[in-house]
Design goal:
This protein is of the alpha/beta class and 182 residues long. It contains seven helices and six strands; from the N terminus they run αβαβαβαβαβαβα. 33% of the residues are buried.
Length: 182
């Protein structure tokens, strides 16, 4: 199985979880691309979907925007923003009494960095039908509890040890096949 096939499996796991969950996938796996694939499928099924994506900083926000717009036009988005921008946005809407923010899909990239303080309070002011959280980090019990509370339990996980076992298993199979042929 190649990387793209495994990314498709992650998309399917999110779909099978009724569009609510966290993908905890090793760094460099292509989590943002998986999010883009999911967005593309949602938009194709219903072009009127509203989507909000949050990332912890400007660099990650730009990467998220670049990847997600590969699968759907920018006009589809309510917004792609950093966590600081979200906090400011929510505070402004509180004053204007325009909360909660309503979207079809909420994407939280590098979610392990967003589950505390003012950022978490701001996230809790968003109503969503679907939620997709992305991380490549080990999550502690508190973070797992918050994800469950948000309706986004971990539904797919790939760690370095799992990846190593898969690669070792594949190499063992190749060696065994080579042995059988000789």
């Amino acid at each position: 199985m190649d990387k793209f096939e495994r990314q498709e499996i992650s998309c399917n796991k999110w779909r099978d979880a009724k569009g609510r969950g966290t993908l905890n996938l090793i760094m460099r796996f292509g989590k943002t691309r998986v999010a883009a694939m999911i967005v593309g499928k949602l938009i194709k099924a219903n072009p009127n979907r509203t989507i909000m994506a949050i990332a912890p900083n400007a660099v990650t926000t730009k990467n998220l925007a670049d990847n997600l717009t590969e699968f759907c036009p920018k006009e589809q988005w309510i917004d792609i923003m950093s966590s600081n921008t979200l906090i400011n946005h929510v505070n402004k809407l509180k004053i204007e009494r325009k909360l909660p923010i309503k979207v079809d899909l909420l994407i939280l990239d590098e979610v392990h960095k967003l589950l505390q303080g003012e950022t978490l309070i701001a996230i809790k002011n968003i109503e969503y039908k679907f939620i997709l959280c992305l991380t490549g980090s080990t999550l502690n019990k508190n973070q797992l509890s918050i994800l469950n509370e948000l309706g986004a339990p971990v539904i797919d996980k790939i760690t370095e040890s799992i990846l190593w076992m898969q690669q070792t298993s594949r190499e063992t199979c190749i060696l065994q096949l080579s042995f059988l042929k000789s």
